[in-house]
What does this fold into?
Amino acid sequence: MEINMSVIVKKVTDEIYKQSQLNYSTSNFLQSTEIASTQLERRNFLDSQRVVFEKNGHVIGQAIINIRKRYRFFKEAIILQGPLLDYTNMDIVKECFEALEIYFKHEKVSRFMIHPYLIQQQIDTSLNIVKDNQYNDVIDYLTSCGYVHTVHSEDTVHVVGQMFVKPLHQYDNEEAIYDAFSNALKRDLKKFDESHVKVRELQEDELDTFYRILVSTGGRKGFAVQPFLYFELLKKYFKKDARFMLAYLDCKAYTDYLQNKIDAFQNRIVELESSPLSKKTKGYITDAKDQLQSYVKRQEQFEQLHVTETFLPLSSYLFMCYGQEVVSILGGSYREYLNFGGSTMINWDMIRYAYRENKDYNFYGTIEVADSQNKTGNFNYKRQFGGELNVLIGSFTKTINPLMHLVEKIKK
It folds into this structure.
């Protein structure tokens, strides 16, 4: 325990940390006691510490601090999406960061990296800047204290650089949310729903279904996947707040649906062709034949997949329902089933869930913003749901051990 003026930084138990972890506007799952328990059990770091900032006997901030080895001999501390503070009060910010540095020296930490969960810039779906420079005072203070500031336009190994968020408080009901979607998205949702794509939550003993889809997606897109144990531990500690969602196809219902459509259009064509062939009737026949062909094609494509399952897994995602938001952490889809729109159906299901829980919907890490000019990419997909791109303040790194500073220079 170290004292800086009247601020005390001290380690606390799981129970004490949990009492106030949701009391901040920046509260998030990476600064929760549950994530600390997860990291401690999986032993990904040397230590995951729960600390609070106390002033005159009152908790004014807190943090989950992950400790790891750096260059074999040095200790590095990482605070992911924290610490939790009132960043609108610069007196508190200054006192807490001064106390934190003293605490790190006491813990023999040579370098520390801090990633505050602060939105520096907000951008609309047309890439117009709505708000900017919201935490310049925090940036100015930390850089004046010797921190190196790095802005991440894309995601990093540890944290996201920017995220697409859909606020939901302005909607009167779920129908209003749906009505605000683009016509293209509404058509897709209708098509996927009529195709009998369903969404449900996976139980704890079904997480391997999620993991298989994630590994398949990682191999296709080239991103690394955490060990299965990590996801088991997230479910163990976050319990109902860690939701593993699955989109699947009811295969019999889908094939019956296609056959019913084919039969209906075949009958419609026979009926029309037996009527007087006016110009209007010919147009109806052409349209019916086009529709028939599209359903026949879908039937043939599905038969070529040689599906044997009754319920075919399509997509699966992990969501954290924490604080004031429902966060889409990660997931994916099987390539061969992308046309069934599993991820879109999961997003729509969880947007409605977030609305019912009085939370905002956070698509989380968002990349490929520039690709949206060509109507492609990750951001382009997410913006069809409506919302805003939130650019985080970035990372702040400070080396306080002169020997490690020398090693860093040599490594460069």
Summary: The first strand starts at residue 2 and ends at 4.
